[in-house]
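Run: sequence + EPZ -> complex structure.
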Amino acid sequence: MDRIRIRGGRPLVGTIHITGAKNAALPLMAASLLTDETLILKNVPRVADIVSLGDVLARHGVSLAEHGVDGDGGLCSRCLSLQAKSISTATVPYELVRKMRASILVLGPLLARCGEARVSLPGGCAIGNRPVDLHLKAFEQLGARIELVDGYITAAAPRGLHGAEIRFPTVSVGATENIMMAACLADGETVIANAAREPEVSDLARCLVAMGAKISGIDGDRLVISGVSRLRGTGHEVLPDRIETGTYMMAAGMTGGDVELVGGRLDLLSSVVEKLEEAGIKVENTQRGLRVWSNESATHGVDVMTQTYPGFPTDLQAQMMALMTTSRGASMITETIFENRFMHVPELCRMGANITVHGASALIRGVPELTGAQVMATDLRASVSLVIAGLAADGDTVINRVYHLDRGYESIEQKLANCGADIVRIND
Ligand code: EPZ
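>> structure
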């Protein structure tokens, strides 16, 4: 099982290229099921979750090809073309869903395209029990019959789906995406109130419109979808990964570095930039993206509460906590989205951090320096918070179970080594 060893204490200086957002590419891939024509996605990140969902789609009969030329003949290093000419099966088995909980995103497209779907209930994961009740209730409102049998969701809409007025009691990124995709081919108009406003939801909506869907209210919390009879293929560029961008901004700040993030977009991270500047980190736009640097020996402690977009993203909570471990003063970080997203706390404490958890809040008292240690990755974002801590720690940090990292960060050790980090992957 691969491990990563980091010898800390070197400032990150140089350039990092930001890749397409994993959490945009996944629903975009699922959208290929909505048409029998070819969908070409550009700027797709090379991460394990993309490969896993590709395996799920291939099982449904989607032909996938990664090729160097995009739809209009331009050179494209990471284009993925997907075509669901016909659907061979509407079942997604447990062993695939267990590996890739975002497989739940095929439920809406399969229901809309074939009138049925059978998807294993995704289990919980390290950060929470991750229910899908909001998805299922909304599908029933669209006219599907939902049953839970032997751990599987069986959904049927033999006469097709019809429009409905849906109001989500809590904001859900995945439920918004799933329902929006299904509603594109439903009969009539669907309104989604209290819709998620994450940029990845908007990126999916824009791709669906390019495929012929009729969606208004994009970027807002009220989406109106008028069903159409069919969708066509299109070419779509996946938007840059704001979570990857924020992660490297915090790594640069933590090490007192100076890094240009090519392709990074500050407009997708306004709540994060506000907190980083409050902590004493400098950020500016550049021709190619953004520059982040720190002149101070230590950051200032700031308080953070995670919220749905455009608030501070839960997917950057662990990384922010790592940054705060060596800040001057104290900081309070409150996690409001998931019920168990502090798995990185005991690992950071093993590196000398001073963190106490009180319910949904963690109090971090800054310490002068962390010390390298053997630590355990538990989930995608917790593992990258340990990388950030290791980059600044005195001595060696070895991170075990780095398969968590590989799910969402493309070539992380290369990107960091190119900026001067002493980081290597140990295959043993
Ligand atoms: C998406 O997960 C992201 N994953 C997550 O990123 C991200 O943390 C999350 O949105 C919040 O921004 C992808 O896009 C693939 P939710 P999702 O539905 O859609 C509860 C990462 O690190 N809920 O917005 O599963 C849920 O338990 C991952 O890249 C219900 O109660 O998140 C959570 O508390 C981790 N019932 C809250 O809502 C439901 O039916 C938000 O979940 C659905 C969700």
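>> summary
The chain has 14 helices and 24 strands. The chain has a mean pLDDT of 95.
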